[in-house]
Amino acid sequence: MWRVGTVVALRDETATARTITLEVPDWPGHAAGQHVDLQLTAPDGYSAVRSYSIASAPNSQKRIELTVERLPNGEVSPYLTQEVAVGDHLELRGPIGGWFVWRAQQTEPIQLIAGGSGIVPLMAMIRSRASAGSSAPFRLLYSVREPEAVFYRDELEVLAHHDDSVSIDYAYTRASPRNWPRPPARIDAALIASATWPSNLFPTFYICGPTSFVETAAGLLSANGNSPDKIKTERFGPTGERK
Amino acid sequence: MPTISRGFSGRRSAADVKLPPGQYLTTDFPVLSAGPTPHVPLDKWEFAISDGANVLRRWDWKSFRELPSETVTVDLHCVTRWSKLGTTWEGVSLDTLFADLNTDASHVMAHSYGDYTTNLPLNDLRNKQAWIAFRFNGEDLAPEHGGPARLLVPHLYLWKSAKWVRGITLMHHDKPGFWESLGYHIYGDPWREQRYSGE
Fold first, then answer.
1. Domains of chain B
2. Which has fewest Cβ within 10 Å: A39, B18, B163, B184?
């Protein structure tokens, strides 16, 4: 069933990513980690559909936020990050997905691992934890190209300083801030060892990012003795336009 | 009446390409998996057909690879909306694996290393419609795409083509597998756009 949402706010996260707030009158609610299918239709009836993760926590306002990264050769993401204006209507269906989901009843330690725009569904989990008043210990490892590519920077900054049960580690792959201890590099065993919960705490892992990133992270965590059924992954390829 | 997206023109596929509804064409090969990629050594690999109580047929890698194989060129349709056309696979037909096996089962559950499951009607695995594939575009199937061997059922959405497949259990009624229990369609025909449960 397609629903119609109205764009009520737009916010740039980075030079290439934008958060779209949609008001969806018949929104049935969602769980953190779920996504929507979003459909654009041209005047001649041609339509294109892509999936985008929901960034916002479940709430009662019938509003959801999507954060969309513009892909250089994308068909849908350039429209969503450059053309869409407040007041426009967008068709969507969802929420979709019942596996890559965090629910407030979960009390075990949670390890979130984001590669680039893979932060989006994980941010929904962090926000959901806060809005539900959960005290589940959360840890986020956020691998990103450079400091300017960090989504939700101010909000994460506040969280990191005011909530001692959400701890955040950044890892940079191309350019790091001045005097950053780790030179720019892809994730590796040493980073996983220093910036994620150890397996003896029996954490649940949520890993979201490009395929190679997720393969590497999930492989390292399995090798460290974590049970595969506690490692939940969501991957997107160059053409997936997921997130 | 669809909502027109002001200022959207889109990028159409070539006119002679016929895709199932709601799909778009891709030329690369995205990976979608719910968890870590299992790495199955060939000397530990096996594939079995069981009726739930007893193993009816079993192959190790050597005996499996001694079966006659086929090379097929098929289109792939993923529920996440990409389609990839003209992919070439080598595999053993399920007709070969089911030869001489008499059963009145109506459905099967495919099981994978890593505990993934997916359900299918038995008829959808027969009559040149399904393979256990071990080569893709002339090369050994990579682990992230389901190697050493995956189920290939190209007429259904790709989640039915279980990666890292290790066996099939015959059933006398339909039962949801992994994604089918999490909101996805029990059958999954891309041409009827059976993406989600209730469609």
1. 45-192 (3.90.420.10)
2. B18
The closest alpha carbon to B157, from B78, B98, B63, belongs to B78
> Do β-strands B107-112 and B117-121 pair in parallel, antiparallel, or remain unpaired?
antiparallel
Write the DSSP string, B7-57.
T----PPPTT----TT-EE-SS-----SSPPP---TTT-EEEEE-SSSEEE
Chain B: which residues have CB within 8 Å of chain A? 2-12, 22, 24, 26-38, 80-82, 114-115, 144, 178-179, 181-183, 196
B148: preceding bond cis by omega (within 30 degrees): yes
Structural domains of chain A, ranges and CATH numbers in brackets: 3-96 (2.40.30.10), 110-236 (3.40.50.80)
Confidence of residue A237 (pLDDT cuts 50, 70, 90): low
Q: Which residues of B touch A48 (CB under 8 A)?
A: 10-11, 24
Q: Where does the pLDDT of residue A238 fall: very low under 50, low under 70, confident under 90, or very high at 90 and above?
A: very low
Three-state DSSP at B155 gives coil
Round to whole Å and give the CA distance between A118 and A171. 14
Q: A219 in the Ramachandran plot: left (φ > 0), alpha (ψ -120 to 50) or beta?
A: alpha
Question: Is A137:A164 a contact under the CB 8 Å cutoff?
Answer: no
